[in-house]
Automatic annotation (TrEMBL):
Gene Ontology MF term list: serine-type endopeptidase activity
InterPro entries: Peptidase_S8/S53_dom, Peptidase_S8/S53_dom_sf, Peptidase_S8_His-AS, SBT
Organism from which the protein derives: Selaginella moellendorffii
Name of the protein this chain belongs to: Peptidase S8/S53 domain-containing protein
Family: Belongs to the peptidase S8 family.
Limits of the Peptidase S8/S53 domain: 10-214
GO biological process: proteolysis
Entry-linked Pfam families: Peptidase_S8 (PF00082)
Keywords: Signal
Amino acid sequence: TSLWAKTGYGSDSIIGVLDTGLCYSPGFFQDKDMSRAPRRWRGICEAGQYFKSYTCNRKVIGARFFLRNARRVQTYLDVNYSLAASDVILSPIDTDGHGTHCASTVGGRQVHKTGLASGMAVGGAPLSRLAIYKVCWGRCNYADILDAFVAAIGDGVDVISMSLGSSLKDDAGSRGGLLAFQRGIPVIAAAGNRGPDGYLSNASPWLLTVGACTLDRDFVVEMELWDDEQ
């Protein structure tokens, strides 16, 4: 709490989120009492299927999607790279849920009395601005991720959050992260997206890599079955 107060709850910092897009939530992503986007912001809100330009607000100040290179791979290079029709929605809309989850984790605003735990759900920087870069469509294409890094840098983000992992031979996060690092933009990356066995991705020294551990709490859920048993 004291760190939040010292940093103004992330006020006016612009976080670029590279993931599967965003599904707007009136709780985590509402812009009540927030001012206009900082003048240094140069990004856009790219409209498309199920995602109108007015989906962006003073909290979610930008959204873009990147699919050109994924389609090129599917068409010309790798017959095993298959994009399901349900994955190809040409907009920043999140059809997976992962990107929305990550965006709320890094920058979601306070939401009270929700979920299984009592208290408040809130992101790490609740007064920050979010810029969404959709780079994953079932799978995440190397070149699309690099394109998103270049776009985020040009748009004027202050920090990039990337909960994606890849092999060392095609590590777009490492290469894109280096571009950002050279321009003074820190990149926060997940140590991995699998489990429960420990492993590591995003290990380049210019990335700030964050891991996870087990939780020392249990959440008990009551289920009512068809025969009224619990």
